[in-house]
Amino acid sequence: MSNPLAPGWLAPPADANALAPGVWSMGAVRASDGVLTIAGVDVEALAAKYGTPLYIVDEADARSRAASTRTAFDVALAAIGSSARVYYAGKAFLCTEVVRWVADAGLGVDVASAGELAVALAAGIDPARIGVHGNNKSGALIDRAVAAGVGSIVIDSELEIERIAATAQLQRTRQRVRLRINSGIHASTHEYLATAHEDQKFGVPIESAPRLVAAIRASEHLEFLGLHSHIGSQIFEAEGFAEAANRLMALHAELLDGGPVPELNLGGGFGIAYTAADDPLPIAEIARRMAGALARAAAAFDIPVPVIAVEPGRSIIGPAGTTLYRVGMVKPVTVDTADGERATRLYVSVDGGMSDNVRPSLYRAEYSARIASRTSDADPVLVRVAGMHCEAGDIVVRHEYLPGDVAPGDLLAVPATGAYGWAMASNYNWVPRPPVVAVLAGASRLIVRGESIDDLLARDPGARSPRD
Ligand SMILES: *Cc1c(COP(=O)(O)O)cnc(C)c1O
């Protein structure tokens, strides 16, 4: 029975135990006893070994998405006589292990802070395959990036041209740079906006680009690689990318008069399914449509198609991740609906929350969930999965139907949490951040250690041990 508190996109499921295709990582299946397994590893065993909450990454899933993204762009760009570079946007989830997975698949890595750069370098990736971003790069980040010999630094404002040139001069080198354009296009999930100017902090206006590129070219310590644009995140359609390709190619063609422009970087932002209602365009289709727009623009301006760079983060690591929680409390809450009826939703509270996944509270992001420790024949009821934090907005899954007998002690799994979960985690309420484990072929291993309360106390210089 449909609950009037449920949103239109969420129907009561025929089977509240089923794992929706496209939402769960490819290794997620229920064993014959009903327990969820990922890559052949039973989640009860994972909970016993590592505790909950726990971030689980399906390694084969992440590796295959990295490889298939690379193939999709290679094929699409080869068909129009060019080639592609794919950078993994490390901010989605970065640790040395993941850097190795994406490097094995032939991807580079984008970083946006001194910390992210340190992780990429610590993983041993060739620095030439690292791209550096940021609207306010620290001096330490620029120094380290130039010294390491990163493949490109994306210049984000006029002042930065001089800063990077000066650093390269001091280090007696020449740094390859891109110039980020505020294209006036902003895309999010189902719509895109194309305006003359977008009111946001990243990039430089299109009209100032020729002057700034001339300044870059005038420096003997900089080498201009091309333009950069990133139009948003969690984008489901290809129109925004096609429009950005059009605008950037017009500028790119103009810049060719003053010297070489070998590449064009169109950013990331490819959407993924968080719930069964999400239906993102496959990456291969986005690549094909992007290439189509590029080929048309190249013909219109009578220029060759440049090497195209893209920077997906979420679409590579997001679907590979699952968060495992333990249910601690359930509580029916009855409210008045808009039609003056009364309806009940079951609040299911788990042992994590906005400290391990802030996206529901930050963006009202939707997720889905399943009982992971068993299946159940109980009729589905509308639930809201809440966290354990002192904040009414601390929601893990805003709307979901789960078997009505969901109870304390059950394990609950939330799929598609691989991107921007651990990466944005906090210690709110002095909650230690959970570990991340990779699962592959029936085995699990820690790829990021979790914190303990002692780790947190160690940062408080006034803390006394209980024996003092
Ligand atoms: C965040 C970001 C990306 C990656 O976005 P996803 O939505 O994770 O694909 C790529 N490029 C830039 C410049 C970004 O800021």
Structure report:
It is a single chain. With 468 residues, this protein is α/β, with parallel strands linked by helices. The chain contains twelve helices and 23 strands. It folds into two domains: 28-58 and 319-458, Beta Barrel (Lyase, Ornithine Decarboxylase, Chain A, domain 1); 79-316, Alanine racemase (TIM Barrel, Alpha-Beta Barrel). A hairpin with a 2-residue loop joins strand 2 and strand 3 (41-42). The longest helix has 20 residues, at 59-78. It is globular and about 70 Å long. It starts with 27 loop residues before the first strand and ends in an 11-residue tail after the last helix. The relative contact order is 0.17. Bound molecules: pyridoxal-5'-phosphate. The site of pyridoxal-5'-phosphate has 16 residues, from helix 10.
Main β sheet profile: 9 strands, mixed
- Contiguous low-pLDDT stretches (5 residues minimum) are none
CATH topology of the largest domain: TIM Barrel
CATH class (first level) name of the largest domain: Alpha Beta
Q: What would you report as the Rg, rounded to the nearest angstrom? A: 24 Å
- CATH-assigned homologous superfamily of the largest domain: Alanine racemase
Supply the helix-strand structural class.
alpha/beta
So, CATH architecture of the largest domain?
A: Alpha-Beta Barrel
